[in-house]
C-alpha cells in the first residue's frame, strides 16, 4: 500500500529533470520577459499545476487551523461566542497543574506503548503462521498452516465493522451482570475470575486496549501477509537446508525484510493509540472513569470544549497532543532507522 | 433525559476524526468562525401587538426550533408548532423543526457563526453550558414572555401560572430570566409498589426500616438497591435531598455556593455513611457499578432490585421494560433518625428541559410565543399525556388520568408542600457534579473502593478547586 504510493511519487519527480531539456538548448540568446515566462512555464508548469490545488487545500484545512489553534490556546475563548481576549500562558499554566491532564498523558503514553506493540506483534505472528508457519509439504519448502486462506478472511472481519459497533458490542461483553465475558467465566467454573471490567479502575484501560487490538490486528495480518509473500521463497529454503527452525527464520529473514512495513504499521497504530476517543466515549464509566482511570487527551479536548465551555484550555490540550505526537514521530524515526536490504 | 447515548456511525466518524490526531485542526475549524460577527442586523421585523399577539410576533416570519430528542422525544414540540401555525397561518410551512441528542456539537458552531435558532431545548448529557452562555451575553431575556398574558386566561400573566421556583431557576444574577424550564421533575427513590407488596412491605419511612427491608429482600435473593454505575451522578437524586433532610436546607445551599468545608457538615457524613452501609451489607445489586441507566432500570423493572435513585422521566424512559402491574412510585428519602431537621416527605423537585431563546436569533418573539403556547393548558395536557411528566405550568393535569409514576410524583409534591429542595450543582458546575463528585467519588464509594470519609475529603477538594478556578463562572443562591 505504502509502497505503491512511494513509487508513483518518485515517478512524478523523475519526470521533472526531463522537462528541462528543451529550454536548456540555447542559454546564450537574450530572452524577453515573455519568453522567460514561457520557459519557466514549460519547465515548472506541469508539476506546479498539479501541486497548487492540493497545497492550497492543505494550507487552508490543515496548516492554518494548526496555527489558529495555537493562537486560540493563548486566549480565554469559551467556544460559545466570539468574545475573547489574550491571556498569555495561563492555559498552559493550568494544564501543567491539572491532575487529570497528567493522568490523561500517562494513559496516552501507556496506550502508545502497549497497543502498537501487541497489535503488530500479534499481526506478525499470525501472518507468519499463515504464510510460512505450516508443516512443509511435498512440493513447497514453506507454506502456511492448514486453512490459512480462510483465516485471512476471518481475521479481517473486525476491520469491516465500524468502531462504534465494535465498542458497543464489547460494552455488552464486559457488562458485569449478564455480559458474555463473566457468563463464560462462570460457565467454565472460574467464578473467582469474574470482574467488574470497565467499572474497575485497575482494569478499565486494559479492557479498552483489548478492543483496540482486536479491531486492528486483522488489518496488519493482511498487510504483513502481503509483505511476506514478496519475500523470495529461496531464502527460506536455504535457511531450512542449513537447519534453521521457524523461530530463527522469523527473526533472521522475515522480520528484517519486512521492517519497512512494520514501521509504517507502527506509525498508524501510534496515531490510533493517541486518539482512543471513540472507545472511551462509548464504553467507559462516566465517560472517562471510573475516577478518571480512562481519561485520554482526545476526550479531554472534547469535554473542555463542549461540556465546560473552555475552548481556550481545550486548544492548549490540543497543542500538548501535537507535542506528544511530534515526540512520538521523532522517536519512531530514530528507532526505525536501519540498513535497507535489497532483494 | 438523563444521558441517553446514541451512537450514530456518522457522528462517531466525525468525532473520532475531529478528535484524533487532528484535534488541533478541527478545534480551529470551529474557531475559524469565532471571528464571525454576532451582529443583530438580521432580525425579522416585529409584528403588530394585539390582544391575540401580545409579544408582537411577525405574523409571516419563519421560526427555527431545535429540540433535544431524549426521554421526552420531540412530538410534544411538533404539536405546539402546529398550534403556532394555526395562530399565525402565514407561517405555515416556514417553521423549521429539528431534533438532536447532540445539542453541543450541532449548535455551538451556529452560536459562533451568529446564526442560532429561535428556540432551543438545551437539555441532555450534551447541553451547552448555561454559565458561559449567560456570561457571554448569548441569550434573550424572557421577561416579556413572563409578563405577557397566558394563553388560557388573558387576565393572568404567564409568570403567575408557573410552579414555584421555576422563574428563579432561570435567573443567574439579577432580574433577567434567561431560561424557562418546561418540564417539572421530581427526584427521589423510585420503587415498584407491587414488588414491595410481595415482601409485605410499604415504602420505608425510616432508614432502619429501609435496612430491614433490604435484609428481608436479600434473603429472598433480591437486591435492595441498584444504580447506574456508568453514570454515578444519578446517586445525588436521592442522596442530596437526604442530606438536606438530615441537616436542613442550608446544608445544600452551602454546598451549591461552594462554601469552604460545606461538605464537612455532619449531615453529609451521616448520609454518606448510610449509603455506604448499603454497599457493606451487600444490599446493592451485584454488578451495578458497570450498568448504564437503561441497564439498571431494566434490572429494576425485572424485580432484581427494589429501589433506584432516579427522576420522574424514568416512567417514560423505561416504558418498554416496565411490567403492566409494576405500579411505579417515587418515595422521599427515609428519615435517618429523630434528629433530622426536615420532616419525612422532603423531596427534590425542579424544572427540567431548559428552553432558551438565543440573543442573535432572527425571530426571538416567535421563540417566546411558541413557549407561551407550550405553557398553555392544551399543550401542557398533551405533554403530560405523551411523556408522563409534569410541566412547569402549575396544574394542567385536571381531568387527566395520570400514569402511576406521575400520579405518585404529584402526590409526593403535595405531601412535601414547602419542603422542596432544589440543589443546583448539576446545572451550575457540570464538571464538578458529574466527573468529579459523581464518577470520581460517589461511584467509587458505592463500589466500595472509597470510604465515606475519603469520598468527602476528595469532594471537598474538588469543590475548593472549582471555587478557586477563575475560568468557571460562579453562582450563589439568592
UniProtKB/TrEMBL annotation, chain A:
Q: Name one GO biological process term.
A: transmembrane transport
Q: Indicate where this protein resides in the cell.
A: Cell membrane
* Transmembrane segments annotated in the record for this chain: 44-67, 109-132, 153-174, 203-223, 266-291, 311-333
Q: Which organism is it from?
A: Streptomyces sparsogenes DSM 40356
List the top taxonomic levels of the source.
Answer: Bacteria, Bacillati, Actinomycetota, Actinomycetes, Kitasatosporales
The UniProt entry, under PANTHER family, shows: ABC TRANSPORTER PERMEASE PROTEIN, DIACETYLCHITOBIOSE UPTAKE SYSTEM PERMEASE PROTEIN NGCF
Q: What is its main location?
A: membrane
* Topological category with respect to the lipid bilayer: Multi-pass membrane protein
Coiled-coil positions = none
Q: Which Pfam families did the record assign?
A: BPD_transp_1
- What does the sequence similarity comment in the record state about its family? Belongs to the binding-protein-dependent transport system permease family.
Q: What is this protein called?
A: ABC transporter permease
List the GO cellular component terms. plasma membrane
Q: Does the keyword Transmembrane helix apply?
A: yes
- Give the ABC transmembrane type-1 domain ranges: 105-332
Q: Which UniProt keywords apply?
A: Cell membrane, Membrane, Transmembrane, Transmembrane helix, Transport
UniProt keyword Metal-binding, yes or no: no
Q: Which first-to-last residue range defines the signal peptide?
A: none
Q: Which CDD domains match?
A: TM_PBP2
From TrEMBL, chain B:
Identify the taxonomic lineage of the organism of origin: Bacteria, Bacillati, Actinomycetota, Actinomycetes, Kitasatosporales
Per UniProt, subcellular location reads as:
Cell envelope
Q: Which PANTHER family match?
A: ARABINOSE-BINDING PROTEIN-RELATED, SN-GLYCEROL-3-PHOSPHATE-BINDING PERIPLASMIC PROTEIN UGPB
Sequence similarity: Belongs to the bacterial solute-binding protein 1 family.
Q: Which UniProt keywords apply?
A: Signal, Transport
Name-wise, this protein is ABC transporter substrate-binding protein
Q: Which residues form a coiled coil?
A: none
Q: Mention any one GO cellular component term assigned to this protein in its UniProt record.
A: cell envelope
Coarse class of the primary localization is: other
Amino acid at each position: 500500500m505504502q509502497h505503491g504510493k512511494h513509487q508513483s511519487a518518485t515517478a512524478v519527480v523523475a519526470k521533472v529533470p526531463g522537462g528541462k531539456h528543451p529550454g536548456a538548448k540555447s542559454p546564450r540568446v537574450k530572452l524577453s520577459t515573455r519568453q522567460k515566462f514561457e520557459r519557466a512555464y514549460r519547465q515548472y508548469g506541469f508539476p506546479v499545476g498539479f501541486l497548487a490545488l492540493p497545497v492550497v487545500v492543505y494550507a487552508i484545512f490543515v496548516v492554518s487551523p494548526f496555527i489558529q489553534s495555537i493562537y486560540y490556546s493563548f486566549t480565554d475563548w469559551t467556544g460559545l461566542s466570539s468574545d475573547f481576549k489574550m491571556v498569555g500562558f495561563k492555559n498552559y499554566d493550568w494544564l501543567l497543574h491539572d491532575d487529570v491532564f497528567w493522568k490523561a498523558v500517562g494513559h496516552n503514553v501507556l496506550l502508545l506503548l502497549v497497543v502498537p506493540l501487541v497489535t503488530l506483534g500479534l499481526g506478525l505472528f499470525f501472518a507468519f503462521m499463515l504464510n510460512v508457519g505450516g508443516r512443509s509439504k511435498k512440493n513447497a519448502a514453506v507454506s502456511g498452516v492448514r486453512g490459512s486462506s480462510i483465516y485471512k478472511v476471518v481475521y479481517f472481519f473486525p476491520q469491516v465493522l465500524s468502531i462504534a459497533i465494535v465498542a458497543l458490542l464489547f460494552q455488552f461483553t464486559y457488562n458485569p451482570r449478564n455480559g458474555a465475558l463473566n457468563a463464560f467465566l462462570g460457565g467454565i467454573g472460574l467464578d473467582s475470575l469474574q470482574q467488574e471490567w470497565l467499572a474497575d479502575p485497575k482494569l478499565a484501560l486494559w479492557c479498552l486496549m483489548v478492543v483496540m487490538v482486536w479491531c486492528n490486528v486483522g488489518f496488519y495480518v493482511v498487510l504483513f501477509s502481503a509483505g511476506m509473500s514478496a519475500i523470495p521463497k529461496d531464502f527460506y529454503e536455504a535457511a531450512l537446508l542449513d537447519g534453521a527452525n521457524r523461530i530463527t527464520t522469523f527473526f533472521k529473514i522475515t522480520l528484517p525484510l519486512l521492517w519497512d512495513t512494520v514501521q509504517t504499521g507502527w506509525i498508524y497504530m501510534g496515531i490510533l493509540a493517541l486518539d482512543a476517543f471513540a472507545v472511551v466515549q462509548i464504553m467507559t464509566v462516566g465517560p472517562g472513569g471510573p475516577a478518571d482511570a480512562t481519561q485520554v487527551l482526545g476526550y479531554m479536548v472534547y469535554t473542555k470544549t463542549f461540556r465546560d465551555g473552555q475552548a481556550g484550555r481545550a486548544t492548549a490540550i490540543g497543542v500538548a497532543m501535537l507535542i506528544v505526537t511530534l515526540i512520538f514521530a521523532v522517536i519512531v524515526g530514530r528507532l526505525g532507522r536501519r540498513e535497507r536490504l535489497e532483494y | 433525559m438523563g444521558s441517553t447515548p446514541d451512537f450514530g456511525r456518522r457522528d462517531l466518524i466525525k468525532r473520532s476524526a475531529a478528535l484524533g490526531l487532528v484535534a488541533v485542526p478541527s478545534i480551529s475549524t470551529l474557531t475559524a468562525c469565532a471571528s464571525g460577527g454576532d451582529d443583530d442586523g438580521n432580525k425579522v421585523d416585529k409584528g403588530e401587538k394585539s390582544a391575540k399577539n401580545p409579544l408582537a410576533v411577525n405574523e409571516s416570519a419563519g421560526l427555527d426550533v431545535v429540540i433535544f430528542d431524549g426521554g421526552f422525544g420531540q412530538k410534544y414540540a411538533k404539536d405546539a408548532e402546529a398550534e403556532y401555525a394555526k395562530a399565525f397561518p402565514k407561517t405555515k410551512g416556514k417553521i423549521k423543526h429539528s431534533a438532536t441528542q447532540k445539542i453541543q456539537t450541532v449548535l455551538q458552531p451556529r452560536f459562533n457563526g451568529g446564526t442560532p435558532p429561535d428556540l432551543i431545548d438545551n437539555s441532555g448529557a450534551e447541553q451547552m453550558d448555561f454559565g458561559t452562555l449567560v456570561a457571554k451575553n448569548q441569550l434573550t431575556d424572557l421577561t416579556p414572555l413572563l409578563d405577557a398574558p397566558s394563553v388560557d386566561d388573558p387576565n393572568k400573566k404567564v409568570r403567575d401560572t408557573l410552579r414555584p421556583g421555576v422563574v428563579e431557576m432561570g435567573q443567574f444574577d439579577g432580574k433577567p430570566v434567561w431560561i424557562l424550564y418546561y418540564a417539572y421533575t421530581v427526584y427521589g427513590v423510585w420503587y415498584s409498589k407491587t414488588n414491595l407488596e410481595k415482601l409485605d412491605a410499604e415504602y420505608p419511612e425510616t432508614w432502619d426500616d429501609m435496612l430491614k427491608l433490604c435484609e428481608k429482600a436479600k434473603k429472598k435473593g433480591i437486591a435492595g438497591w441498584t444504580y447506574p454505575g456508568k453514570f454515578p451522578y444519578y446517586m445525588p437524586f436521592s442522596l442530596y435531598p437526604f442530606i438536606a433532610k438530615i441537616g436542613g436546607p442550608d446544608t445544600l445551599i452551602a454546598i451549591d455556593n461552594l462554601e469552604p468545608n460545606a461538605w464537612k457538615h455532619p449531615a453529609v457524613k451521616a448520609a454518606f455513611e448510610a449509603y455506604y452501609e448499603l454497599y457493606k451489607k451487600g444490599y446493592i445489586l451485584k454488578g451495578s457499578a458497570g450498568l448504564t441507566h437503561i441497564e439498571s432500570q431494566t434490572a429494576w423493572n425485572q424485580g432484581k432490585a427494589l429501589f433506584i435513585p432516579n427522576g420522574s422521566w424514568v416512567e417514560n424512559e423505561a416504558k418498554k421494560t416496565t411490567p403492566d402491574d409494576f405500579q411505579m412510585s417515587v418515595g422521599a428519602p427515609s428519615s435517618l433518625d429523630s434528629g433530622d431537621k426536615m420532616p419525612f416527605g422532603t423531596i427534590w423537585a425542579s424544572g427540567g428541559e431548559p428552553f432558551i431563546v438565543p440573543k442573535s436569533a432572527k425571530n426571538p418573539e416567535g421563540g417566546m410565543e411558541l413557549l407561551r403556547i407550550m405553557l398553555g393548558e392544551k399543550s401542557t395536557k398533551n405533554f403530560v399525556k405523551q411523556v408522563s411528566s409534569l410541566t412547569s405550568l402549575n396544574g394542567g393535569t385536571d381531568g387527566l388520568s395520570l400514569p402511576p409514576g406521575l400520579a405518585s410524583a404529584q402526590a409526593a409534591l403535595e405531601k412535601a408542600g414547602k419542603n422542596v429542595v432544589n440543589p443546583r450543582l448539576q446545572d451550575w458546575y457540570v464538571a464538578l457534579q458529574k466527573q468529579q463528585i459523581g464518577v470520581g467519588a460517589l461511584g467509587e464509594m458505592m463500589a466500595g473502593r472509597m470510604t465515606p470519609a475519603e469520598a468527602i475529603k476528595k469532594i471537598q477538594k474538588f469543590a475548593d478547586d472549582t471555587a478557586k478556578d477563575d475560568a468557571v463562572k460562579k453562582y450563589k443562591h439568592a
